[in-house]
Design brief:
Elements lengths: L1 H24 L20 H29 L12 H4 L13 H11 L6 H18 L9 H9 L1 H7 L5 H9 L6 H24 L3 H15 L3 H8 L4 H14 L17 H8 L3 H8 L14
Helix pairs in contact: 1-2, 1-9, 2-4, 2-5, 2-9, 4-5, 5-6, 5-9, 10-11, 12-13
């Protein structure tokens, strides 16, 4: 979830920066960076600015949809978050019943159905619009257009979007999609926020399905496997054992979005620091036994209170 939030934040901030820079170029002399290799001169063609703006829009849409795609893959690599039966679908592999690979929206819908009630249908429809618009606007791929039923469903929720999504005008957004126009900044802000909220709601529900002990071991296992050199990382993290190891792991968890503020309501599995020390304050040999073999809940270290 942290990676998706970063994708949305970076995409939105970069998009705004590029658009502000384009507008600034209309009024002041450009300042070229020293490392600009290709020659560049301000264009007198007003459509050049619009093409650059559209490119920035495309880039932002790709970044956010790719962020959701990565989230759907990651939840299958953190042991215990979802059943193995979901892995092929969430990873976008070939599904015999579909006779094709599922779209990123179908994969998000599939995960949402697995935790019923976690996500508003309006948020799912908004992400479907974003993913479909991305395919058509960026890749010129129109094999899976947004259906008339879904477009009408979005427009029927105009009041909900206005009241719950910062005054969003979803009817105008859908109209621009139907006309194959470039989305506005307001369109993308609405759709990006919907994607982030949908995934956040699912993520919270998934985390609440597991215990703090299981999740801490599964998350550490994931971080090790994702590292370029898992063995070297294990040696580094568990070199001294005890609270030195658990303290390093605590810092890693905080970096990846965990929280240790006692004043905040827990919306995920939790452990006290004493429990974390007992669970993962391991030396290298015990850590190798736990993480370098196939993960299973039977090998969890017992908690010593």
């Amino acid at each position: 979830m942290v990676l998706l939030r970063k994708s949305v934040w970076d995409a939105t901030r970069s998009l705004n920066g590029i658009i502000v820079a384009l507008e600034t170029l209309r009024h002041v002399e450009p300042v070229k960076p020293d490392d600009l290799i290709l020659s560049w001169h301000p264009s007198e063609d007003p459509t050049d600015s619009q093409r650059t703006r559209a490119f920035a829009m495309r880039s932002a849409m790709v970044a956010v949809v790719d962020g959701v795609d990565r989230y759907l893959r990651v939840v299958t690599r953190v042991n215990g978050l979802v059943d193995e039966d979901l892995h092929d679908y969430l990873n976008g592999r070939w599904i015999r019943a579909l006779d094709r690979r599922p779209t990123v929206f179908e994969r998000l819908r599939y995960l949402s159905d697995w935790v019923p009630g976690a996500v508003s249908e309006n948020l799912l429809l908004a992400f479907d619009l974003l993913a479909t618009w991305r395919n058509e606007f960026v890749h010129y791929e129109r094999r899976h257009p947004l259906s008339r039923t879904k477009k009408e469903a979005l427009k029927a929720q105009a009041t909900w979007f206005t009241e719950n999504r910062g005054g969003a005008d979803i009817v105008s957004t859908v109209a621009r999609y139907e006309a194959a126009e470039t989305p506005t900044i307001a369109d993308l802000v609405t759709l990006f926020a919907a994607a982030q909220r949908a995934v956040s709601n699912i993520d919270e529900r998934l985390l609440l399905r597991t215990s703090g002990t299981e999740y801490a071991v599964a998350l550490m296992s994931f971080l090790l496997k994702e590292d370029a050199n898992p063995t070297a990382m294990l040696e580094r993290v568990f070199e001294h054992g005890g609270t030195s190891s658990s303290g390093t792991i605590h810092a890693l968890f905080l970096h990846w979005g965990a929280n240790h503020d006692e004043r905040r309501r827990a919306n995920a599995p939790s452990l006290t620091r004493r429990e974390l020390d007992a669970l993962l304050g391991l030396g290298r040999n015990r850590a190798k036994e736990l993480f370098l073999l196939e993960w299973s809940s039977e090998r969890l270290p017992s908690l010593k209170r």
